[in-house]
Design a protein that fits this description.
mainly alpha, about 75% helix, about 0% strand, globular
Length: about 375
């Protein structure tokens, strides 16, 4: 089964590469939890990796679901049944793994005596809807953002459909997207004006990981999908330019941002209002080039596609399940550095092993069931 997926001609290698890089960035950043707190360059870089990895997932997810939704919307028979089918397919993809690992996390919490706040919210993806994310199952914050984006956009399209002529649908699709992007920019301004700014942790809790301020990260990917579908010549001709622009933007994010002599107020204003949209746009710049990278012949292909295939399972398992249990049952804090390195290697291998098992024995069968239900 895995060999068949690795050689699936419908897969786009560039997007697999994007997904694989994203999950490896997240995974490597959480290795920091094994080591003492450090302000070294490598430690700061890995923290940034964790942030950017999730942002890549957001934009990529928006690009993929945007193409599906736009093609459905442009048809004359776009209706509630089409929205229902769209959501059904998305939920078949995301719900089974999420709810299984949620139950596993609940079991772990009961074993180690970990307190869970507002557990019911996790079953409706509102654990970080308008406020700070609780400590339990922290990586689920991004899934809540994605699930709400999947619901909000098609329902808004459904609401405006009766008032839009068929020939104007593409135009109204982009108008709605622009309105949404402006709305969420204004939401960030509101957050900035009504938040006491102290440090990056406060920014993370009050803005970066809160659903009502973050849906635009998905919608920037959807915007890219509209350009791909409706202005493909521009998309193809500009891919080299956008790739270079994306590289320069990432160089700024990694190395240039910290060199700007912001005042404290200026830094907070930039972080709360400008930074996240800039990151999303920078990631979207890579899509024209990577979406055109259809196949790859080198030996790197199979490992990259493999990591891409199991990336969702890796994301759900690696931190709250595998790393938390390993730390609970070991005295890693008192290990010498060599043993910490060995611990890290074992952690990474166990993550890949169990994620592969989850993908093969649960995630993929659920996706196969989705295809059967379509028929």
């Amino acid at each position: 089964m895995l060999k068949q997926e690795l050689n699936n001609p419908q897969r786009i290698f560039g997007l697999d590469l994007m997904r694989a890089v994203a999950i490896l960035m997240v995974l490597s950043s959480h290795c920091l939890w094994i080591y003492p707190e450090s302000n070294s360059f490598i430690a700061q870089l890995l923290k940034l990796f964790g942030f950017l990895g999730v942002e890549i997932f957001f934009v990529l997810s928006g690009f993929l679901i945007g193409r599906i939704l736009l093609q459905s919307y442009l048809k004359d028979d776009f209706s509630f049944s089409r929205v229902r089918d769209f959501l059904k397919r998305r939920w078949f993809r995301t719900f089974p793994n999420y709810f299984l690992i949620l139950l596993v996390n609940i079991l772990i919490a009961s074993v180690i005596g970990y307190k869970i706040e507002s557990l019911w919210k996790y079953f409706f993806f509102v654990q970080n809807f308008s406020g700070a994310m609780p400590a339990f199952f922290p990586e689920s914050w991004s899934l809540a953002v994605e699930e709400w984006a999947y619901v909000v956009l098609p329902l808004l399209l459904l609401l405006i459909t009766p008032f839009v002529a068929s020939k104007n649908k593409s135009k109204f699709f982009i108008i709605l997207l622009v309105v949404l992007l402006v709305f969420f920019l204004l939401a960030k301004i509101f957050c900035y004006q009504n938040t006491v700014h102290a440090n990056l942790n406060d920014w993370n809790l009050s803005l970066k990981a809160v659903v009502i301020y973050r849906l635009d990260a998905i919608f920037y990917g959807v915007l890219a999908s509209w350009i791909y579908c409706c202005h493909n010549n521009f998309w193809q001709k500009g891919k080299s330019f956008f790739l270079i622009a994306g590289i320069f933007c990432f160089l700024f994010i990694f190395f240039g941002f910290g060199k700007i002599p912001f005042t404290e107020e200026g830094l907070n204003r930039f972080l709360y209002i400008v930074y996240l949209p800039v990151v999303s746009i920078s990631i979207a710049f890579f899509l024209p080039f990577l979406s055109g990278w259809k196949s790859e012949k080198s030996k790197l292909k199979n490992p990259i596609v493999f990591i891409s295939l199991i990336s969702y399972s890796v994301y759900l398992l690696h931190y709250s399940v595998i790393l938390q249990l390993m730390k609970y049952f070991t005295d890693i804090e008192n290990y010498p550095m060599l043993q910490k390195h060995i611990f890290t290697i074992v952690y990474l291998l166990l993550t890949i092993f169990f994620s592969y098992g989850l993908y093969v024995w649960y995630e993929k069968p659920m996706m196969d069931l989705r295809e059967k239900s379509k028929k």
